[in-house]
Specification:
It is a single chain. This protein is an alpha+beta fold. It has two domains: about 100 residues, 2-Layer Sandwich (Alpha-Beta Plaits); about 80 residues, Alpha-Beta Plaits (2-Layer Sandwich). It has seven helices and eight strands; from the N terminus they run E-H-E-E-H-E-H-E-H-E-E-H-H-E-H. A four-stranded antiparallel beta sheet has the order 2-3-1-4, with helices on both faces. Strands 6-7-5-8 form a four-stranded antiparallel beta sheet. The longest helix has 18 residues. The protein is globular and about 50 Å long. It holds the Pfam family DUF1697. InterPro entries: DUF1697 (IPR012545). This is DUF1697 domain-containing protein. It comes from Streptomyces wedmorensis.
């Protein structure tokens, strides 16, 4: 059975560093045998389908290895299936429809977002910014955007995310990836 996934690359094409052109990323994914490959923006978002039966971690490992071989540097990646992405969007505890995309973010993690990791953060000190935890995701409400967010810095501290790969997407990108994975799934049927 064919399944659709999104690959979320961390920290590429930032200030001219760790360049991974999207056309080359599409070629690389197609070279791995994936179908329906499409990218979104320059920040490392790709959608693809595969009938390989491989799980998210296997797909992530293959992608990280292929990127390192092709570009000469390792890039942390997360691979999530379309159903997971849709579930994250649906479970958002904030009024996403009433907010600008830059005000709401999903920080995807490679493992569980255990509440204990975040227990030392004084939530009151960061208001009106807020966060909520989900399944391998942290929802971050930053009314002035991520660039000005103090709470973003607090939830990203190495002591908090130790041992996890984390990569953030604004809500517009979250919704676009859900849409793209649904479109690809529909094409397969």
């Amino acid at each position: 059975m064919t399944k659709t996934y999104a690959a979320l690359l961390r920290g590429i094409n930032v200030s001219g560093h760790r360049k991974v052109p999207m056309a080359e990323l599409r070629e690389l994914l197609e070279g791995l045998g994936y179908d329906g490959v499409r990218t979104y923006l320059q920040s490392g978002n790709a959608v693809f389908s595969t009938a390989s039966g491989a799980g998210e971690d296997e797909l992530k490992d293959a992608l990280e290895d292929a990127i390192e071989e092709r570009f000469g540097f390792r890039v942390d990646c997360l691979v999530r299936d379309g159903d997971y992405l849709a579930a994250v969007a649906e479970a958002c505890p904030f009024p996403a429809a009433d907010l600008e995309g830059k005000q709401l973010h999903a920080v995807y993690y490679s493992g569980p977002a255990d509440p204990e990791r975040f227990a030392a953060i004084d939530r009151e000190a960061y208001l009106p910014e807020e966060f909520a935890l989900g399944d391998r995701v942290l929802y971050l409400y930053a009314p002035d955007g991520l660039g000005r967010s103090k709470l973003s810095e607090a939830v990203s501290r190495p002591s908090v995310v130790k041992g996890l790969v984390a990569t953030a997407r604004n809500w517009n990108t979250v919704l676009k990836l859900v849409e793209m994975t649904r479109e690809e799934s529909t094409r397969e049927e």
